[in-house]
Amino acid sequence: MNVFALTAFLILSILVGCKAQTGATQPVDESRINGGGILESFQRELTKVVDKVSPSVVTIFAVQEVEFNPFEDFDLPFRIPIEPFKQERRSLGSGVIVKHEGGKLYILTNNHVVEDAKAVTVRFDKHTEKRAKIVGTDPKTDIAVLEVSAEGIENVDERIAKLGDSDSVRVGQLAIAIGNPYGLERTVTVGVISALKRSIGITQYESYIQTDAAINPGNSGGPLINIYGEVIGINTAIVASGQGLGFAIPINLAKWVMEQILEHGRVIRGWLGVVIQEITPDIAEAIGVKEGILIAQVLKNSPADKAGLKVGDIIVALNGKKLDSVRELQLSVMKTKPGTKVKLTVIRNGKKKEIEVTVGELPEKGRKSQKTGESEDLGLSLRDLTPQEKAKLGIDGVLVVGVVPGSSAHRSGLRPGDVIMRVNYRKVGSVREFYRTIEKLKEMGKSKVLLLVYRNRSNIYLVLNLR
Hints:
With about 475 residues, the protein is of the alpha+beta class. The chain has four domains: about 5-55, no CATH class; about 55-265, Thrombin, subunit H; about 270-360, Roll (Pdz3 Domain), CATH 2.30.42.10; about 365-465, PDZ domain (Pdz3 Domain). About 25% of the residues lie in helices and about 40% in strands. Helix 1 (about 5-20) packs antiparallel against helix 3 (about 40-55). The radius of gyration is 26 Å and the shape is globular. About 35% of the residues are buried.
């Protein structure tokens, strides 16, 4: 056992023993707690870990140019004669140096720290700053990779953080966060791993490590480390209204994304082409199955469609490994190289069967056609209304047939069965028209659009984030 972990255990043991012998109302013998230098050993080991990792933690300054629209940004009920204008916005975050190769340093951080940045600066210490190149970003996991010249950086090899194995992390283990909250460089906080495989609905692919080690604005992109000084996560998010609720991207996932970016310039993901959902208690009672993931839709001409998967199938295992959640299937398929054959164990009509599927490549910008369409960026699957449906409903628009959990479409409040009638007050009568309108608004620099949606015989407005 590492001395750090051992001393922590011994301290707790001594404290409990002292309390039991002296009683809660009697003062504790501080010299006995010290136990011949146990506290000093604990403190010494902690500072060693921090000293080892701190040089790899950097401060990141990003400059973005954003469009300011008084009418849209303030949601005014009337238009005012002010033209939209652009202004600079500066953001602050953290990063961790993870690789030194070919005279270059490679830094892991969050996508939201450098998103849409026209300039990025990395501060190594109070005397050294360098301009950075964004090698690649992945909004679906909120990971970004930066490149900086190693020239002039002292003790370069000592600044490279050691990456751990996030799959071996367990709830209750000690965790240390290092970052730059509010610009306070290399701030250290200590806590425990509170939970694993958390999904909080901010990115498409989530399996967060939850920790109570204090994380604040500015910590984003910094490392979460274990008692051996190994990076086990990239600190990403907090629950602003709570305390001790911080979330980090598992380092194994961040490392995979980084390797994809460095090798291909982008992230290549495996793809089945199904819309899936969790089996809730109500669904389990209705179908008599309490395991697996339910297929709500099979996209036409997708790998799943070609393999013979059907709506209503329940996926219970991938290559013999049991699946417990939508997230688990998504992440497993995502990391599978396109062209690889996998075996899915499914329950169909109460009987188990194995179906072999050749994994495809997730389309970068979604699959779009006149009759049906899927946007992986938005997490939205649509089709045109039939003439019969239009006549019955008395409206025109596009039908939402699938929404990816945790996606932008899901966070906007869109649900299967909704009919999108207008996008920013423009009528959309087909899937092709919907995507054409979305692309035009993106080209205009719009980051959010207003949707008029028909649901349960009434109309509602929803806001869809395009980023």
